[in-house]
Structures are given as C-alpha cells and as structure tokens.
Amino acid sequence: MPKKQLALVIDLNVCVGCHACVTSCKEWNTSGWAGPLSDVNPYGADPTGVFFNRVQTFECGTFPDTETIHFPKSCLHCEEPPCVPVCPTGASYKREADGIVLVDYDKCIGCKYCSWSCPYGAREFDPGQGVMKKCTLCVDRIYDMTLPEDRRKPACVLACPSSARIFGDINDPNSDTSKAIRDNGGFQLMPEWGTRPSNHYLPRRKTTMTVHRDELVRVDNPLKVEGELPRPAFTTPTIDGASSW
Amino acid sequence: MRPAFSVLFLTTLIGAGQGLLIAMVTGQIFVTLGGGPEVSGGFFAGGGLLALILLGLGLVASMFHLANPQRGWRAASRWRTSWLSREVILIPLLCGLVLLYALAHLLSLREVSLVLGLLSLLVCLALFVCTGMIYACVRFIRQWASAWTVVNYLMMGLASGFTLAAGYAGLAGSALAGFLTAAALALTLAALAARLTQLWLNARGTARSCMKTAIGTHHTQIRQITQGFMGQSFNTQEFFTPGGAEAIRGLTLLFILAGFVAPLGLIVLGVPVVAFVIQFVGLMAERWVFFAAGEHVQNLYYQAKA
C-alpha cells in the first residue's frame, strides 16, 4: 500500500465563493503557537497580509453565455514538491508520515527561493517573522487528541457551509477523498509540470433532464381529450351521499 | 519578477570578482607557458586582493537579501539538491583560495601560486555555474530556464572582470595590459552576442501553462474576475515588475549600450577603467532586466481585482 498522503479535495461544483474557508484559515493559523500571520498596514490604504488560502473567481465564456467558477487555492501538498529540493537550509520539507509539505520556521532564512519554485503561488513570505509560510493542512489541529474526532480536520474544511472541501488520505482507496476523486472526475492543477499535486479538484457538473414531447401527453387518455372529463350518471354514488352533479 | 537590489549587487559584484581572478590566473598561465613578458608577483597579488574585495562586497550584499541572516550558515546544508546551497559553500571557499593565492604571490612562491591559481580558476567556473543554475533551474520562469542563463552569467562576469583587469594592468603599467585588453574586447563582444541570443529566444518563446491548466477547466475563454482580495500580497509584490514593459524596453536599450557597446569603444580608446565603471552600471541594468523580464507561471492566478 502506498504511503499516506493527506490532502484536500475541493468540489468546484459546490463552492459558492463565500470565503468562509479563507477567514477561518486566517483566524486559526494566526492564533496558533507558530506565531501570527503578519498583516502590514491592515487598516491603511494599501493593506497586505499573509494568507494560506484564497478564493478566486473566474468566468468562462462570453456574456451572456458565461459560467462563474469560484476557485479556492491553497498549497496542494505535491507528491513531487518542487519547492523542497531547492531550499538551501532544509527548512522546507515533506513529511514522510503523512505527506504534508511544511516549513520549519526555526531553520528558514527567508531567502524566498522556494516561492520561486512553486507554480501555484502557494507560498507567502511573512515579513513579521522573516520566514516563508504556507498551508500546513492545520497540522496542529488534525492530530490534536483533545479535540473530538470529527473536529480533527483543517479549519477550512470545518468552516465550509456547502461541504465543498473534503479532507482525507488520497492514497487510501476507501477514503472519502479517493472516492470523490474516482467517482466525480477529480483532477490536478497544471499536470504539465509533473509536480503531482495531492489536492484534487472536482469539476463543475451540470444536471440536465431531457423531456420528450410525448411525455407531456397522457398515453392512457383514450378520447385524446385534455379538457373536461365525461360527467358521471345522475345516480352514481358519491362520497357525501348527495348528488354527483 | 521584482528585481531585488541585494541580488543585483551580489551577482554583478561576484561576477566581476571571479572574472578578475580568472584574468589574473590566465595572465599568469600566459606568462608561464607562452614565455611572455616578465610580470611581478605583486601585480597578481594586487589583482587577487581586488577580486577578494569584490567577492566580499558581494557577500555583504547577499546578507541584505536574507530576512534571517543570523541563520545564514544553515544554507550550506543542502548542497546535494540546492544550487543555492552550493553557491553558499563555494563563495567563502573561493575567498579563502584567493587570499592564499595573493599571499603566495606576495611571498614569491611562483609554483604554489600557480597551483592555487588553477584551483581558484576551477572554483570560479563552478561558482559561475552555480549562480547561473540558481536561476536556470527555476522551471516556472521560462525566460530563465535555459542554458543561456548560465552562459550569460559566465560571459558577463568574464567580460567585466577582464575589463577591470585591463584597467588595473594599465594603471599598474604591467606588461600584461595588451593581452588583457584584447581578451576584454573579445569577451565583451562574445557576452553581447550571447545576451542578444537569449533576448531573441525569449521573445519567441511561448508559455507552457495557460488558464485551462491553471484551474483545470476545459474552456477556450477563461478570464479572472477576482484574485480574491483587493489589496496586495506576497504573490502580487514578489512576482510582478514595477514599471512594467516600458521600463524593461528602456533598460534593455541602456544595458546594451552601457554594458557592451560603450565599454568596447572606451577600451579601444584606451580608457579601460572608465569602461569598467560604465560596464558595471550597464550590467546592473542587465541584471535588473533579467529579473524584470522573468514571467512566473503563478502570475496566471493574479490578474484581476474586484
């Protein structure tokens, strides 16, 4: 059996673009033991800040025949992470145990080289601590035995009101994530670079029904009359015992 | 990509330093093998020390690039996989070798100095490859990801180093001035040709990724409505160029003139020191353009605010 690889599966068919995952991610990760996700000038004219997760919006087609796609984007925890081998200090690493790509903030020198080697723009530099940061898959939550078992999930997954985010081991064929990928045409972003992202996305799916003309007409109507039915006889019994007329 | 001045200074300074050292060593080999004119050890020692100063200044500049320079020593640990780590090891190694090379000349140990010189020549070439590969191995910037990046780091370092060496030889009244001036002319011309080739190739290249693969939607027309936030972020600051295409065009013209054409003329006119100063400014502009012209794949995700 292949190694465990925790990941998210994000259903683009379900995401409504509410940004609840963005805010809950920021809240959880800025409050943790690893230090805040610094904001610079947060209430000023030109604010910046560190986020691990963003929801972007794209539009396909030409007006009026368009389709809107809300697209949550965070670190994909690649199985071949190009950001890891380029790190000169070894601060950037992929965990053997569960495949999460992490940064050791005590080793990072803040050279930003790893961010150049990520095609997805998943890494963000924290000017407060002077280190590179990225999605940790809430590694400080998912193994926390003080939490009830159903709460041991990344903050973004718990926050999603439409259950567009599924968390699990994509190398376990029986996990929710594997089933979702298998059954709903799950795909990876930018497969051309060979990074083999662990996070998968489920495509937009349309539910349509074809109604044929003959289905609109009663086939058991021998008189082919769609209007008033023949009146019953005057003596026909009725429910209220009065007249059927 | 946003050009970082610490890296611009680092790469141009150590490039010139390595070029100067290679000029000294090749000069010494020329004298030793070719039966050229007698040159004093002091000339080579002075050149070596000048190269050491340039390398040291480059190291200082590199420190400004690190957010946590106090942990900089850790950067030597991943030499098996990271070109950046290999560079971090080679720069101090080269500094040490150059110091020994200069000392050997001062103590008039000709044979020892030649061995040390050849060693530092090899380390210099390896360092050029490391510096170039740091950028050439970033697959996600197509303008960088080619062998031409390595060739250009090498050629521009050699050109500026030999120009400086020619100026130094002229000032010191060394008999090697003719040899170094001819080499500086040839290398500057070759560097110009190599850089123009890369400019031409980059203008013709096409991007490997597109919106289709970026969000995995098979649609011919995809546009971003919003990147998800109204302000700035690391992704919009580090990977985009201030000034845009106009600044790149203007500075490209500047670096071709100041980095190559003007120095060629000034060397011919017999003022190689002035040529070096102008060439150095031109090569700084070249490095700026090199960074600014790099279009990172991640920019596909950051196109619109709403």
Description:
The complex is a heterodimer of chains A (245) and B (306). In chain A, 13% of the residues lie in helices and 20% in strands. With 245 residues, chain A is of the alpha+beta class. Chain A has one domain (6-202): Alpha-Beta Plaits (2-Layer Sandwich), CATH 3.30.70.20. In chain A, strands 10-1-11 form a 3-stranded mixed beta sheet, covered by helices on one side. Chain A is elongated, with a radius of gyration of 27 Å. Chain B has helices at 5-34, 41-63, 83-106, 110-136, 147-172, 177-204, 211-215, 234-238, 244-269, 272-292, and one strand at residues 222-226. The longest helix of chain B has 30 residues, at 5-34. Chain B is elongated, with a radius of gyration of 21 Å. At the A-B interface, strand 3, strand 4, strand 5 and helix 2 of A face helix 3, helix 7, strand 1 and helix 8 of B. Strand 4 (53-62) of chain A pairs antiparallel with strand 1 (222-226) of chain B.
Which SSEs are present, and which pair or pack?
The complex is a heterodimer of chains A (245) and B (306).
Chain A: E1 6-11, H1 20-30, E2 39-40, E3 48-49, E4 53-62, E5 65-74, E6 92-94, E7 101-103, H2 113-116, E8 124-126, E9 131-133, H3 139-142, H4 155-159, E10 165-169, H5 176-183, E11 200-202
Parallel strand pairs in A: 1-11
Antiparallel strand pairs in A: 1-10, 2-3, 4-5, 6-7, 8-9
Chain B: H1 5-34, H2 41-63, H3 83-106, H4 110-136, H5 147-172, H6 177-204, H7 211-215, E1 222-226, H8 234-238, H9 244-269, H10 272-292
Helix pairs in contact in B: 1-2, 1-4, 1-5, 1-10, 2-3, 3-4, 4-5, 5-6, 5-10, 6-9, 9-10
Listing every helix as H and every strand as E from the N terminus to the C terminus, the arrangement of chain A reads EHEEEEEEHEEHHEHE
- Domain count of chain B: the total is 1
Radius of gyration of chain B: 21 Å
* Number of structurally distinct domains of chain A: 1
CATH topology of chain B: Formate dehydrogenase/DMSO reductase fold
User: How can the largest sheet of chain B be summarized?
Assistant: none
Q: How many individual β-strands of chain A?
A: 11
Poorly predicted regions of chain B are: none
Number of helices of chain B: 10
CATH topology of chain A: Alpha-Beta Plaits
Q: In one word, what is the shape of chain A?
A: elongated
Distance between the termini of chain B: 23 Å
